[in-house]
Amino acid sequence: MQFLVVENYEHTELGILGRVAAQEGHSWKTVKAHQGEPLPSAADAFSGLVVLGGAQDALADEAYPHLPQVCDLIRAFDDAGKPVLGICLGSQLIARAFGGENLLGLPVEFGWRDVTPTDAGLEDPVVGTLGEGAPQFHWHSDTVTLPDGAVLLASSAMTPVQAFRMGELTYAIQFHFETGLPEVRNWSEAFAEDIRAHTPDWHDRLEAEAARHAEQADETGAAISKAWLSLL
């Protein structure tokens, strides 16, 4: 069976997760929800759900009317006992779906920065692949409060909630473990003006930052990807 991928914004992609999924023999169907492609109403036809990121906030229903449907779909997969993975905006939509608060417009966390697992995260089969901590790519200003019943799995210096789990199979991950160096370079070109607005020297230091962090970040991203895919 395939897993379902929900795209919420242009230039979002599976990246490392897609490369590992292909190597592992998985297939997936992508719905470009931000372009108006219809979402399924149930989880029946798919083995799991991935909800990708986006520049909009998780409450932007007027401009992106599909967002409440994504929350419904998240709950449907969770109710069916099928693995769910939300990345960045996707993680914020998981929080919304289960009653957490979306905190909007905070300072931007951008670039490769360390993520550290909690004690629960160290024991988690997916987030535990961070080991004692690892650099991961970030790009967000919004965050969340934990829904009731959530297990906090990881934090960073700027963002207390970097990863959490609902039940056993629904994972919300704020950091972009799926964004490998090719995707970082692509974003740096496609969103150059947006990046300059908050990190004006990024293009001057991209390659030096990549030399320091990208290899470890990509290896860790692949390990997280493989671990989540094993749940399907």
TrEMBL record:
InterPro entries: ChyE-like, Class_I_gatase-like, GATASE. Pfam families: GATase (PF00117). GO terms for cellular component: cytosol. CDD domains: GATase1_1. The lineage of its organism: Bacteria, Pseudomonadati, Pseudomonadota, Alphaproteobacteria, Hyphomicrobiales. It comes from Roseibium aggregatum (strain ATCC 25650 / DSM 13394 / JCM 20685 / NBRC 16684 / NCIMB 2208 / IAM 12614 / B1). Residues 42-179 form the Glutamine amidotransferase domain. This is Glutamine amidotransferase domain-containing protein.
